[in-house]
Design a protein that fits this description.
Blueprint: H1 9-28, E1 36-45, E2 48-58, E3 61-69, H2 78-93, E4 97-103, H3 108-114, E5 118-123, E6 132-138
Parallel strand pairs: 3-4
Antiparallel strand pairs: 1-2, 2-3, 4-6, 5-6
Length: 139
């Protein structure tokens, strides 16, 4: 009889690493592991943090998770500098594209579009019942 039991990622780590080799071979034609690395960059002005960006590089794709600029420092190029730093990190890791998710009605959409990101889809009624869009940029 099989029992389904709540677990932690640490408990199943060895099992997943062993079994994912077979999935990699089946779907990607290789079984040499999955390359991923998280990143965090901050923008400072006079020793104070005025912005940050974080996300993850995962097997050729850069995910932008959070890009935040202090309210009184917006529209000064800080967000663009942070995004460019993250993209540079991704390219150095071997990324061929970047993607992010943002609110469908949020004013930041123009910011991403001006930097070359294209709307490629979305999620209706998602977090807190808000509609979201996915933006991608090919390198």
């Amino acid at each position: 009889m099989v029992n389904i039991i709540k677990s932690s990622l640490e408990e199943i780590k060895d099992f997943n690493e062993k079994e994912w080799v077979f999935a990699d071979q089946k779907y990607y034609g290789e079984g040499n592991g999955w390359k991923e690395e998280e990143f965090v960059f901050k923008a400072e002005e006079y020793g104070q943090i005025v912005g940050s960006i974080s996300g993850k590089f995962e097997e050729g794709v850069l995910y932008i998770g959070d890009l935040i600029v202090a309210k009184d420092k917006r529209e000064k190029g800080i967000g663009k500098m942070l995004l460019e730093k993250a993209e540079e990190f991704g390219k150095n890791m071997g990324a061929h594209k970047s993607y992010l998710i943002t609110g469908e009605d949020w004013d930041v959409r123009k910011f991403y579009e001006d930097l070359g990101y294209k709307n490629t889809g979305g999620f209706k009624n998602h977090f807190r019942h808000v509609n979201f869009v996915v933006y991608e940029k090919l390198f």
